[in-house]
Each structure stands twice: as C-alpha cells, then as structure tokens.
Amino acid sequence: QVQLVESGGGLVPPGGSLRLSCAASGIIFSAYTMGWYRQAPGKQREWVGTITSNGWINYADSVKGRFTISRDNAKNTVYLQMNSLKPEDTAVYYCHCNDGVGSWGQGTQVTVSS
Hints:
mainly beta
C-alpha cells in the first residue's frame, strides 16, 4: 500500500520561499510519475506540476518560473521548491503518485501572508 507523507508547509511572507517534501513508501518509487497539486479554500484542487520516472517535468502556467519539482529516488522523496511566493499560492499542497490507483498524501498547509 502506497503511503505519501508531505512536510515543509508553513507561513511565509509574499516573496518568500518554501520547500515541500513528499516521502513515499510501499512502492518502487523510481518507477512512478509523481505530482503536486493544491487546493485553496473554496476552490477545486488544481494541478501544480509533475515529474515523470525519467525526469521529465511539467508545470502549471501559474507557477512556471517560480516553482521547481525534483526527485531523489534514493530517498523515495519528491520535492517542490517554491520561490517568489504570492498570496494566491496559499493552499493545502498535496503529493500524488500515478500508481494506477492514484494515491494522495494528507496535504501540508502553505500560507503566504504578511
């Protein structure tokens, strides 16, 4: 059974940075595409970006140039480096594994506010 555990969220002022981590277990991590999504209050969950098993990366237009996804297969972990954060980036951020079932972590809160 896949388990995904996000960490690294918090409160940051506009223009600040955060790095989120998602540790995976129960899978051959290196074989799977991993993604980040977010859900702001009162809004639908939206896709942030994806990294495939061979390292191809795509981003939503809203975060392109500010967010960076990476993975460390030796640590079974995917990261989301977020720079130049804006108040509209405030959301719960979720890690996703494209394992055929579609597994999700519990989410980590990111709040961008002065």
